[in-house]
Design a protein that fits this description.
This protein has a domain of 265 residues. It is built from 18 helices and 21 strands. Helix 12 crosses helix 13. The longest helix has 21 residues.
Length: 536
């Protein structure tokens, strides 16, 4: 990757971090340090990623948790491996049952959107297949943070407080009381710098460590999860947990200007990023900060999302294949729809067949792109009493429309927003990248990758550059630091440009690139969060 390591002539950013023996980039300094500690104990990048991921469930519970899902891309032995640890809907749930409970759409909170959590199984499977240290050793830093406490960071405290204010209005009934007891003891969430601890969380992590996550899916923890969800009126059963296994899948890719961009296949939305990049590769002369570049990026994202939201679901239920959607013929057909003015996206018909992200690398060439989430900050609002497990609400994304590809069905995995990314060139690893934040994620992937590949920015600068976010129709949010002249010019092209009051909805990302000649690692972490790059 050819970039000036310290300076870009048009934009001023923080400098990147360099290291040689190892690097962990996360949205929380304590989690990054947990991963680095494991590297220094003799663990590899996989062990470090597990340590950081487990620590993030403690130090950033407003974005992820033990009761959420996870995906991973792992570069090891000269090959990229992909793990899908997203859990399915309960086997006893149905559209009819949800409608009978009085809902016209999937609710955001409570027991109905609870799906099988995949994160603990992801940690155990990654450790089993590629880890060097025992799972218990990788989880030890997270256990210590939970049992002994830690000072809450500013961005986490802000998001925690915002969630608490919303939940005081939205959460009614006894099922939600454990959330307030766990995350707002004494009636308020922790302030920045305030020590917070969760002994229940620590005990649960110990049981996961000692059992290799078996207790979570087939032991006492499983029984307590099921009993609580069913008492609250949900459908999750012991059979659902017992049957779950994370799945090793073949990653999907698209070429982009000499690089290969890799994503997890559906049910993840990484395909949206690849669809947009395929469209954009057909345009030459794209320049950083140019109005025409922003316009083409926005239009490409619109078309990619139209296809993604029409077709992406559990791959067993997809009618359009990934290959057909990424084909040259279909890409050319869709690219021809990008005109000189803002359009309204529609899906095509191809022929044929709250989230945390982290990146880790070691001195041996192993690299990990990992993401996990409870969804919508703390998830469903259900916290299993006595064990500190906040359960995800990933089922919220299911449709109750019988004609929709992503309609709710028993045992089905939903369209999933969390996506890790990875970049290679000529069969060699460049490195992991990711931008968390709901439907911002594929938009963040496209913008940060183009910043690096097209515009020559180093990882830190590629992450720090001002972002835009398409939200539907012709509406595009732009960050406070977005160039005002470009925003005005885009408005003249028909885009409904709106300046956001803050950067909270524009994602938070990390990147680590590796120089194939020297093995030197170059990392960045988003300035929109509390993150850091821990380096060795």
């Amino acid at each position: 990757m050819n970039f000036d390591p310290l300076y870009h002539p048009h934009l001023a950013y923080r400098v990147p971090t360099y290291a040689h023996r190892g690097m962990v980039a996360t949205s929380q300094p304590l989690a990054a340090q947990a991963g680095l500690d494991i590297l220094k104990r003799g663990g590899n990048a996989i062990d470090a990623a597990i340590a950081a991921a487990a620590a993030l469930t403690v130090v950033e519970p407003c974005s992820n948790g033990i009761g959420g899902d996870a995906f991973a891309l792992v570069w090891t032995g000269g090959k990229l491996h992909a793990l899908n640890a997203s859990g399915p809907a309960p086997r006893s749930i149905s559209i009819e049952a949800v409608k009978a409970a009085g809902h016209s759409e999937m609710p955001a909170y409570g027991p109905l959107p609870v799906t099988v959590p995949g994160a603990p199984a992801a940690w155990a499977e990654l450790s089993r297949r590629f880890g060097r240290l025992p799972l218990g050793e990788a989880l030890e830093p997270a256990i210590r943070y939970a049992e002994e406490g830690y000072p809450v960071s500013p961005t986490a405290a802000f998001n925690w407080d915002k969630a608490h204010a919303s939940y005081r209005v939205a959460f009614k009934g006894a099922a939600f009381e454990p959330w307030f007891e766990t995350f707002a003891p004494g009636g308020s969430p922790p302030a920045p710098g305030e020590l917070w601890r969760s002994p229940d969380h620590g005990r649960t992590l110990r049981r996961i460590a000692e059992s290799g996550a078996e207790d979570f899916y087939r032991g006492e923890l499983a029984a307590r999860i099921v009993a609580f969800v069913q008492e609250a009126g949900g459908f999750l059963s012991g059979e659902d947990l017992d049957a779950f296994r994370p799945e090793w899948v073949d990653p999907i890719r698209a070429s982009y200007r000499g690089y290969d961009v890799w994503e997890i296949p559906p049910n993840g939305q990484g395909l949206v990023a690849l669809l947009a990049l395929r469209l954009l590769e057909g345009f030459d002369g794209l320049q950083a900060g140019a109005v025409d570049t922003y316009h083409k990026q926005i239009e490409a994202i619109k078309l990619a999302f139209a296809d993604g939201q029409r077709h992406i679901t559990d791959p067993r239920h997809m009618k359009a294949s990934v290959e057909a959607l990424l084909s040259d013929a279909y890409t050319a057909e869709r690219r021809a729809l990008i005109g000189q003015r803002a359009g309204l996206p529609e899906a095509g018909d191809p022929k044929g067949g709250g989230t945390v992200y982290l990146a880790a690398a070691d001195g041996e060439g192993n690299m990990v792109s990992f993401i996990q989430s409870n969804y919508m900050q703390f998830g469903s609002g259900l916290v299993v009493p006595g064990v500190g497990i906040a359960l995800q609400n990933r089922g919220r994304d299911f449709s109750l429309d019988e004609a929709a590809a992503n309609r709710l069905e028993p045992g089905k995995r939903t369209y999933h927003t969390i996506i890790p990314g990875f970049l290679t060139r000529g069969g060699e690893a460049v490195g992991p990248f990711g931008v968390m934040g709901g439907l911002m994620q594929p938009q963040g992937h496209v913008q940060t990758l183009m910043n690096a590949i097209d515009f020559g920015l180093h990882p830190q600068a590629a992450l720090d550059a001002p972002r835009w976010q398409w939200t539907g129709g012709r509406t595009v949010l732009v960050e406070p630091g977005f160039p005002a002249a470009a925003a005005q010019a885009l408005a003249r092209l028909g885009h409904d440009i709106r300046f956001a009051l803050d950067g909270g909805s524009f994602g938070r990302g990390q990147m680590i690139w590796r120089d194939p000649a020297t093995g030197v690692l170059c990392g960045g972490t988003d300035s929109r969060t509390d993150g850091t790059v821990a380096a060795w």
